[in-house]
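Loading example: each entry is read as two labelled lines plus one structure line.
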Amino acid sequence: MTSGQIEIQLIAVVVAVACALPGTFLVLRRLALVSDAISHSILLGIVLGFFVVGNVNSPVLLLGAALVGLATVVLVQVLERTGLVKEDAAIGLVFPALFSIGVILISRYADGVHLDIDAVLLGELAFAPFDRLEFWGWDWGPVSLVVMSAILAVNVAAITLFWKELKLSTFDPALAIALGFTPALVQYALMGLVSLTAVGAFDAVGSILVVALMIAPPAAAYLLTDSLPRLLVLAAAIGAASAIGGYWLAYALDASIAGAMATMTGVAFALAWLFAPGRGLVAAARRRARQKLEFAQTMLAIHLANHEGRPEAVEESRVDHLDRHLRWDADFALRIVRLAERRGLVASDGLRLSLTQAGRELAADALAR
Amino acid sequence: MLDLFDDYTLRTVALGSAALGLTSGALGSFAVLRRQSLLGDAISHAALPGVAVAFLLTGSKAPLVLVAGAALAGFLGTLLVMGVVRTTRVKYDTALGIVLSVFFGFGLVLLTFIQRRPDASQAGLDRFLFGQAAGLLRRDLLTMAILGGLALAVMLLVWKELKLLAFDPDFGASLGFPIRALDILLTSLLVVAIVIGLQTVGVVLMAAMMIAPFAAARQWSDRLGVAIGLAAAFGALAGVVGSVLSSEAERLPTGPTIVLCATAITLISLVFATRRGLFWQSLRGRRDRRRLRLAAVLADLLALEEQHPDAGRGHSAAVLSVMSGGALSSLEELERRGYVRRLDADEWQLTDAGRQRASR
């Protein structure tokens, strides 16, 4: 690996972790699509900031963009409060409008500057190591690595400091109000973090990847754990793994790094969806299959108990008659009988079945419930 | 504006944008009603890899091929959203966000992969990203018109069922309507409306064209048929005005201009729509507050006169102000209406009409 490759992966990992932390709270608060809105409308903030300072590399741009990101959230809430449109429609009205204004401003007044829309939306991580931060005669590393590390530090600090407030207002906003907290304030602070992170990240990876990194890793982690601290750590880890996997996928295909990283977050979510212990599709299917067999054994025990000691028991307890009495096909019936024998529920003399004491108890227990 | 009838290119673009606005305005209405406004955003982003795969498989850039690819991918994306929501505890908005960003990212991988292949024949695919109305050709227009017309015809055919789906799906299911199938049908119609618009306004802005027209139309009517008709008209209007504006002015990209026109229509509707509009709401609020204030002062004056029955003596505005605040202007208004009379500089008394009204 060249040092450039290492730096790109380092940036990618830092961006992924920085996005996953506030993203976790967005997912928990059902605000996932706010990241979509913010990451688009910050384009306008960057353009406006550019008009003010006339320079695309100034930190003022970041500030302007973060403010417009917050303004997006405020506008959405103002629209929603009128009661004339629902929240989802309000989001869908605000961010395309702000994005459109940004695009029009760029194409009319900032054409030719390094402010092209492709770069904003899609990002180009491959060029990040060339833009270096140098002062006091020292090379401090790529600008985006320094900026994103700072933002990551802010996110970690904010989440640690306001842990209690965030947790409470996320899971029980009503209780938070009753205890004297102001969930609205927490909400805006969180949106501020999201804006800041989106602004910092979009420069390196583009706004669509910001959405992917904020939502998909926390959603995957959400399928794997029930504890908030573990959720945050897992989301960060899944994000980082997707970032590195995405880099090498892009390397292999010679394709967009940001796109490949987004793809890998999707793969990570798909894996969690399929294989999450207890909750994944595979686990659910296996549970259903097991329950079906257990239920069938109980049915067999009840059937035998029903006819035990009666004249018809001779007929009813024949293995090859189960298909008629319980409407099972012969293979299934044989399989259930074997399972029940192994569990010690029934005993068989090759042709007829009889209940053991355990089987009798199971049947009585199931009927009593 | 005259150019609209002479200029061939402009006419094509304006007609195309009108068709797009009409279809997405009408079909987007159902998405907004069902609180799935941002489904359009997810579908349009999800369509991108479909375009790339269609091109990779066929090597063709015919609009019908690319649109079919886009539609399939958009449809697949929607099914995944439904699947995730049904089988996991992940919520709808998160599922939309995942599908939106992951499909788009994958589309980006494919597009860059295609671009870097030696046979650089991919030019034109990336217009799906940002839209390029100026590049609309007659064959695009034909594709858009036929697909949009079909989608609208199906919508009218199953109008009653869609209405039920939008307002009370549980009741619909209890009546025996196949709600799941209808859901999928409506989604397919949305997908068609979206892929029609993609090459004109692009992936990012398509969401606005699904939402803004109905958000505007909803303010003008409480009847579904009227509102959807209006939404279609608003969408078409935004399309035509936006595309004409962007061709008249220099360097005014079409997609964003159309979206801003649609947003402007929505803002105007939110403020000035009859009955629901914010402007009328605030007028009504002010009138109601004034009426209440007048009634309060009148009632206070009656109470005072009943407590102090020594007839002929009036009561001062200051006393009344203590009781319900800012009484002087209300008293003057009441005097104009003949409910109170001024005995002295600051002494007020109910007239007979006023007494009657106050004790009513």
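The mean pLDDT of chain A is 85.
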